[in-house]
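Lab channel / #folding
Pinned by the channel admin:
"Please post every new chain as: sequence first, then the structure tokens as a reply. Keep commentary short and put observations after the output so the thread stays searchable."

First post following the new format, from NK:
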Amino acid sequence: MNYVEKIKEKIKKSGGVITSKELKNSNIPTIYLTRMVGKGELIRADRGIYIDSNGDYDEFYFFHSRCRVGVFSYVSALYLHQFTDIIPGEMEVTVYKGYNPHRISGSIRIHYVTKGIYDLGITECQTMFGNTVKAYDLERTVCDLIKNRSEIETELFSKTINKYARYGNKDLNKLYEYSKKMKIYEKVKELLEIVYE
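Reply from TO:
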């Protein structure tokens, strides 16, 4: 298998995205990326990031390749967990306060949190293309929605809370543990009491 075939194989496995770093790690000269761009087989999407010119690419994975600090949150996390039928109009990510979002561009909504709660509930999720990205788990996402209720669309908020209350794999202990760390324990307790009545 020659270098170009190896690159095409990697692109197929990664939902249409390849980085020059991946090639270096596989001992494939990066000059082949430039040649493939010249032939129209690849598109240079960003510095060191290339996408397949023939079709769809995984925008969640593409973003994740560009910005490792961003964690998918809010509606994006619900979508990745297949917990909403809403397809996000913009990706929502959370970063820690003080992070310079110069690598983040496009229709992306950025949420900032303190470093103390940034790691809380980070998990790995599969995109619809089968790639792995970082997102907050359901309990953390529910806490984020409750904490910032005034910014959340009413219908989305009530649908999510009601669905979570009926969800078979929910972890209330984890939810309450997160809510204490995020200083919203009373709000979470009150809301769940209303839902369960």
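NK: The first strand starts at residue 17 and ends at 19.
TO: also worth noting, The mean pLDDT is 89.
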